[in-house]
Specification:
mainly alpha; Four Helix Bundle (Hemerythrin (Met), subunit A); two-stranded antiparallel sheet; 2 strands; 60% helix; 3% strand
């Protein structure tokens, strides 16, 4: 999921804007968060039904479901089978809330990916120590899905994120995948910025080689190697973002 690049080289300002319009899911998520934060939707209140939100916001059922899933992953709402989604009791007091408005400049992406570095490096090590046979197969499938996307001429960003999710799940600690789910829509830098070369075959091949190294270390049960492979992968992403920030100076 990391994007490779050169060294940041003494960046003092990180003011380059992220040039990507928010998706419909992001817009709906932001709209619902605003209603919750302003008190329009109080803790314990039920969100409008999917059909009601589709009519009010003019979006598809899939968009509504993905937006609610993101809010659920961040703990802002809870869902009850057959009853719908409800605002969580502590929704107004949560400090970790990342919205499209928080990702305005490259520096914001750097901050987010530094957080990912702290989380995913240890998740990879835990995965190497704890991964079940089923977890290994999910990782293998996710890795193959990235290759298939690249072969189709796509950038493989969505498949890339699913690979990192599979690593987090293989850790055996449910908080790793929950945190990654929350950060998910902003976790792939090449989806958050309009940068060149994201479909370049050699570039994507280099990324996939890094994913392969992570997989091999986890499959071998080598926690230190998994930790190192994930760290190198994510630090390469930070280097690329640093280069983008430097270009804005």
């Amino acid at each position: 999921m990391a994007d490779n690049g050169g060294s940041a080289g003494g960046v003092s300002q990180l003011s380059r804007r992220v040039e990507k319009s928010p998706t419909l899911v992001e817009e709906v998520t932001t709209r619902l968060l605003a209603d919750i934060r302003t008190g329009n939707l109080q803790p314990g209140a039920r969100l409008p039904t999917e059909r009601e939100m589709m009519q009010q916001l003019g979006v598809s059922r899939t968009v509504i479901r993905e937006a609610v899933a993101q809010l659920r992953a961040s703990g802002v709402v809870t869902t009850r089978q057959g009853l719908g989604a409800f605002v969580s009791a502590g929704a107004h007091h949560r400090t970790l809330q990342i919205s499209p408005n928080d990702m305005k400049v490259v520096g914001d992406l750097i901050n987010l990916n530094e957080l990912r570095l702290a989380i995913e490096v240890e998740a990879a090590a835990r995965a190497a120590a704890r991964a079940s046979a089923e977890s290994i197969e999910r990782l293998r499938t996710a890795l193959d899905d990235i290759s298939a996307a690249i072969d189709r001429g796509e950038d493989g960003a969505e498949e890339d994120f699913r690979f990192h999710q599979a690593v987090a799940e293989a850790s055996g600690n449910p908080h790793f995948p929950r945190t990654l789910d929350f950060l998910g829509q902003y976790s792939v830098p090449r989806r958050a910025t309009n940068v060149g070369g994201v479909k370049d075959a050699s570039y994507l091949s280099r990324l996939q080689n890094e994913h392969q190294q992570i997989f091999d270390a986890i499959n071998d049960g080598n926690a230190n190697a998994a930790r190192d492979a994930m760290r190198q992968h994510l630090e390469a992403s930070l280097a690329r973002l640093g280069r983008l920030a430097q270009q804005a100076l």
